[in-house]
Amino acid sequence: MSVLSPRTYADWSIALERFAQGNDDDAVLLSMAQGQLDWTPGVATLFSERIHAVLDLRVQALSVRLDRSFSYSRDEVEVVRALLDARRHLGLLHRLACVPALPDVLRKHLLELLEKVAQRMQQSLEDSARRQNAEALLRTLRHHDLRHFHSSTMVAPAATGASASDATPLPTPSRRRSFLV
Questions:
Q1: d(CA 164, CA 78)
Q2: Which pLDDT value is given to residue 13?
Q3: Does pLDDT of 167 surpass 60?
Q4: Closest CA to 2 of 146, 155, 145, 161
Q5: Are the CB atoms for 141 and 129 separated by under 8 Å?
Q6: Rg value, the chain, Cα
Q7: Gap between the Cα atoms of 154 and 26, Å rounded
Q8: CA 144, CA 51: separation in Å to the nearest integer?
Q9: What are the backbone dihedrals phi and psi of residue 155, each rounded to the nearest 5 degrees, phi first?
């Protein structure tokens, strides 16, 4: 299904609803990146509440999914998969918060909110591993830190009509280790 770029509050509401459902996130985010929003006082309040509700809904779904994945994980590989999946979902939420049509104040607020969520999730996982005296799990959690979700985020194509396949990944920090002999 083709997703049109939102122009009115009603269009944005439909796009946010589709994003809340988690169906076709990339297409919805691409359309949002190409959308426009008239930031009037009435729209500002409604839109801010709406985007916060969607973000909260997706964070709660992510939390439930991560808890379920951890409860069923039997080895380190499954733990890593769960962490990478959580980072990918946080990356999608980061892309939502970075939509160019959003005012700078709202964008900054949403990004700070995401940082806090990732920090709390990571801290909770590490505290749990410490309580269980699971040093291997703690090392895995630290190596695949949820706060590094930015590296899994894609830069949305410009509003020039570029396709999602034209998106380029953000530069990732090098994970290469150097050993001094």
A1: 29
A2: 93
A3: no
A4: 161
A5: yes
A6: 18
A7: 10
A8: 28
A9: -80, 125
